[in-house]
Amino acid sequence: MEQTKLASLRRYNDISQKEMGDLIKVSEATYRNKEKGITQFKATEMFIIANHFGKKVDDIFLPPNFIKHEVSNKEVS
User: Fold this and answer.
1) Who's near 2: CB < 8 A, 6+ residues apart?
2) What are phi and psi of 58, to 5 degrees?
3) φ and ψ at 14, to 5 degrees?
4) DSSP letter string over 4-49?
5) What does the pLDDT read at residue 2?
6) What are the residue boundaries of the HTH cro/C1-type domain, all occurrences included (predicted)?
7) How many CA atoms lie within 13 Å of 35's alpha carbon, on the beta-carbon side?
8) What is the pLDDT of residues 9-33, one digit of tens each?
């Protein structure tokens, strides 16, 4: 899944893909593939990135149209 929130946040803060790659200790090409959704971010990488921007992992890595649903257990009569 393409990381549109992350890409927007990165550009807003004027941070290059190379700098982000350096942050999570991967090459620029590897980072680019992760941001495009070709490969997935590891959990540790997500936490490093969220911490860098002072945000929650969910705020960056959940899709923009993600809705949390509560499931209630209903008794069947």
Assistant:
1) 35, 36, 37
2) -60, -35
3) 55, 50
4) HHHHHHHHHTT--HHHHHHHHT--HHHHHHHHHTSSPPPHHHHHHH
5) 76
6) 6-60
7) 22
8) 999 999 999 999 999 999 999 999 9
Percent of the chain residues past pLDDT 90, beyond the cut: 70
Count other C-beta atoms under 10 Å from residue 27's C-beta. Answer: 12
Quick one: pLDDT at residue 75? 46
Residue 22, token pair as written in the block: 């350096």
Tokens 């009569």 — which residue?
Answer: 77
- Domains of the chain: which residue ranges? 4-59
- Classify domain 4-59 by CATH number: 1.10.260.40
Q: How many CA atoms lie within 13 A of 28 on its CB side?
A: 5
